[in-house]
Amino acid sequence: MKRIFCKDINEYNNYNLNKILLILFLIAIVLIPFDSLPYMKSILGELGVRGPVYAFIPIFIIIFIYFIYKRRIYFNWNIEKVLLALFLLWTIISAALNINNIINSEFKGRSGLEKLILQVMVVGFMVAIMYATEFIFELNKISLKTIRRCIFISFIFVGAYSVLEILQIYGIVNVEGILKNISYYIHYLTRGELYGDRIRSITGEASFLGMYTAFAYPWIVSYILTEKKLTKKIFYGLVTIYMIFLVYLTKSRAAYAIAMGEMVLILFGILIFDKKKFNKILIIIITIVSMVSISSFNKLNMYINNIRQQNAQEDGKTEIIDNGYNIDMSVGDVVQSLNSKTNHSNIARLGLQKSALNIGKANPIIGVGLGQFGFYADEYIEDEARVSFEIQRWMNPEEDDFWPPAFALIPRIVAEQGFIGVAIFIAFLATTMIKFLIKYAKAKENTLEIFIMVSIIGVLVSTFNADTYGLPQLWILLGLITYLNNKKEASKI
Predict the structure, then answer these.
(1) Chain segment 222-241, per-residue pLDDT in tens
(2) Contact 237, 172 (CB under 8 A)
(3) Among 97, 154, 246, 383, which is least packed by CB within 10 angstroms?
(4) What does the pLDDT read at residue 464?
(5) Share of the chain above pLDDT 90, in %
(6) Type and span of the H or E element at 446
(7) Residue 443: how many CB atoms within 10 A of its CB?
(8) Helix axes 206-226, 277-314, angle to 10 degrees
């Protein structure tokens, strides 16, 4: 009987198909910041808004044709895949044991079974992205620098659109028509509308831009250390400062915290693990310049907004506010708001995260099933959180457009797959990253790998700001790291 599975990647040696897969994969990377597309949301739900999904669908089709033609499936077991398989198995068991409740659950016109099916699609698609990433890397032996170039191209789109937003926000040039026209094609949230006095760029909202920069920032900074020409180092240094400026303009508390955290991680990562003394000196300079830049942004923003305030008063206005954010808020003001016990956003986020943990405590072994948090949130939310108008909106059965989020992936897993499920998931992530760290801490050339580690840490931290599995950049990085972990020789950068 012919074997179904194959461990030899050389059996899939079709030049044309391999190059098509490579091109589509690189396009997927470029499309990462396009996370709010309006075209297939009604069909694919949250998958339909993610740009990389549009490239991965044909990738999956080609890989499927490959396997049908070869009559073999490429698969090679490793500890990362074992733990991920255990998590998926536990997710199935959890859903199966909760199936009666799932079938009978209904809230805001949605059924428990509907939510289960949609989330199975999301989880399955993301795991497939991880697999396809490893498969394509094996086929084409892609260099990390190639991936980095694609990430830089993605930032060109982000940076270009942000220029238009800056011109509009600060009243330099009225580009309202251009922004609305572009927004109509790339934003399903507030489609064809201005976003206000915060930067979101081509992403769905300001916090999403922060999640994108959490992924891209370490890769962009790495250029400064790996480029040999001084002119290129200066150029990418300026690009890095511009990215920090965009993070500043998001006025997103999570974006600020993650960006500063990544700065610290990069600093210590290079100082501890990088073998090149020059890089150690350079990263200290980069960190200092970055911190000075943030302080300068504060002063520049205050100066510009003093002028705007004066102009606003002349027009009979007292202050300039949009979406509850003063545009003259400093980094310190925004970060300090994280500790505010009266901030409605804080109350809502912590309230729903506690609700998820409370659900997990009540169902510690198997949870309530994949995709079911929203059906139980109201029952387990604490009274002190109900003062938030956001909580009231999410819990109101008549507000169909507002589904209760858990606001963080780990608490959501606790609620839906129990403490066993979250333990397996954390073990999967920890094992993957520790294995990567051990391997490349010993490598002679490890500069870019250090930045990859910081990138995935940043993305994982950003999942404490969003409760979705549907982050293509996370699963692409997991596929990349799994490939590098099990590669016999260290990747050449």
Answers:
(1) 999 999 999 999 999 999 99
(2) no
(3) 383
(4) 87
(5) 61
(6) none
(7) 14
(8) 140
Residue 230 burial (CB count, 10 A): 8
Work out the widest C-alpha separation in the chain, in whole angstroms: 85
**How confident is the model at residue 220, as a pLDDT?**
96
Mean predicted confidence (pLDDT) in 60-65 = 93
Short-list 45, 30, 60, CA closest to 128:
60
48: number of Cβ within 10 Å: 16
- 290 — phi, psi (to 5°)? -65, -45
* C-beta of residue 50 within 8 angstroms of C-beta of residue 204: no
| pLDDT value of position 328 | 46
Would you say residue 354 has pLDDT above 90?
yes
Instruction: Tell me which residue of 172, 137, 193, 152 sits closest to 492, measured CA to CA.
Output: 137
Residues in the chain: 493
* pTM listed for this prediction: 0.90
Give yes or no for residue 344 having a pLDDT over 50: yes
Reply yes or no on whether the pLDDT at 294 is more than 90: no
Beta strands in 346-439 (DSSP E): none
**Contact in structure between 221 and 274 (CB atoms under 8 Å):** no
Q: 109-147 as b/e, with b when 16 or more CB fall inside 10 Å?
A: ebebeebbebbeebbebbbbbbbbbbbbbbbbebebeeb
Which tokens sit at 410?
A: 């780990």
Distance of alpha carbon 434 from alpha carbon 364, whole angstroms: 27
